[in-house]
Design goal:
This protein is an all-alpha fold and 272 residues long. It folds into 2 domains: 1-102, no CATH class; 105-272, no CATH class. It has helices at 2-32, 64-68, 83-102, 106-128, 133-154, 157-185, 192-205, 210-231, 244-269. It starts with a helix and ends with a helix. Bound molecules: zinc ion (ZN). Zinc ion binds next to loops.
Amino acid sequence: MLEIWTSQYYLGVFIFLFGLAVGSFLNVCIYRIPLPDVSIHSPRRSFCPECNETIKVHDNIPVLSYLLLWGKCRHCKARISVLYPLVELATGALFLFMFHHFGLTLEFLLALAFIAVLLPISVIDARYYIIPNVIIATGLILGVVIVCVISYQRADIWYLLIRFMGAVAGGMALWLIAVIGGAILRKKAMGGGDIKLMALIGLFLGAWPQLVMVIGFSALSGAIVGSALIISGRKNRESPIPYGPFLASAAVVVLLWGERLWGMYLRFVGWH
Ligand SMILES: [Zn+2]
């Protein structure tokens, strides 16, 4: 019993550290993808955006380096955004939580891929109001591969079909909402990026009832946070509010607790 516990414990520590490393890579994506003149692999090494000095390997350890350097560049002392260690910590914590929830399964692998695309999408959308195609495409490829493997392992073709349907239905549902919402509000209610993101979410979660829950939760949380921002004077009615982070967080909630919440809902309305 104790041996199982300790091996799970070490595995958990390893997964958390692995998450920190992945988060460090996601930071590179978050910083570089929206910029026109740098790419993911060139320049090869990370650099300080203020003084362009290459960051040494020992100054590039996730979270730890940020703390040891007091959040400043060693060379020019420019402040490093607290967003970087936060993204690393969030990735580590979410990876560990997914391990706790799914165990060492293929569904766990699917959840890790999901987190690794949703996190940079959320941060980039919140900062620049765009959802880069390259991240959507990476997510679609990862999702299709892992979903195919799970479907094969379970010898369950429905698992695959329902997720392909989810991708199509998700994209179409948000496209419809964008068209109808645009006609009613007489302004652009939703971007093409949100439509592609919803297709991606459908691929990872499946169609019914997951998609309905994601749309419901994201609309609700978006409305609450949006009103709070307007009331507190941080945004006005005309300023855009990125929808990506709300879709992404709703998707994670549904991935983890969707079935249970849907069961509770059915019991509540008295259908079961
Ligand atoms: Zn610097």
